[in-house]
Amino acid sequence: MPQWLCNQLMRAFLKKDRRQIRLLNDCWYFYRTSNRPDDDSATL
């Protein structure tokens, strides 16, 4: 997970900002699926 995303998630959790947490979570899953190598056996 990129450091900038970790920082924003930590900030959102500390502020208990559910909307921001959901948005960042969606961003992470989109990032993870779009940057996944063709080989599914690779661990992330």
Give an overview of the whole structure:
- It is elongated, with a radius of gyration of 12 Å.
- It contains two helices and no strands.
- It has one domain.
- The protein is mostly helical and 44 residues long.
- The longest helix has 17 residues, at 18-34.
- The chain has helices at residues 3-15, 18-34.
Following the backbone from N to C, one meets helices and strands in this order, namely HH
Helical residues, percent: 55-70%
Q: Catalogue the unreliable spans.
A: none
Return Rg in Å.
Answer: 12 Å
Mean pLDDT: 85
Task: For the record, give the distance between the C-alpha atoms at the N and C termini, rounded to a whole number.
Answer: 9 Å
Strands, count: 0
In short:
This protein is an all-alpha fold and 44 residues long. It is built from two helices and no strands. InterPro entries: CmpA.
Give the helix/strand layout.
Elements: H1 3-15, H2 18-34
Helix pairs in contact: 1-2
Which labels suit this protein?
about 45 residues, mainly alpha, 2 helices, about 70% helix, about 0% strand
